[in-house]
Specification:
30% of the residues lie in helices and 14% in strands. It is of the alpha+beta class. The protein folds into 2 domains: 33 residues, no CATH class; 31 residues, no CATH class.
Length: 81
């Protein structure tokens, strides 16, 4: 554990997540780092185009399992947005 601390590779606690969803501010010194430990490191969860595309797909196809059988709701037609 002492060797890990000396090398700076031990577990640290994030006190804040950046508004971009990609950065963390670590305790205790406030070091800002890029996080690759979440699903958000590409910030796709904050991309309005992805959200709008999902909303449009739900409006067109719904959320029921039977919507997957509708040929107008195929992956290629949904990717056109």
């Amino acid at each position: 554990m002492a060797r890990g601390r000396a090398a700076g590779v031990t577990q640290r606690v994030a006190r804040e997540i950046g508004a971009d969803g990609k950065t963390l501010v670590l305790e205790p010194d406030g070091q800002q780092v890029l996080s690759f430990a979440t699903c958000s490191y590409l910030a796709m969860d904050r991309d309005w185009r992805l959200a709008e595309g999902a909303i449009e797909a739900i409006r067109r196809c719904g959320v029921a399992v039977s919507a997957s059988l509708d040929p107008t709701c195929s992956e290629s037609s949904l990717m056109a947005w």
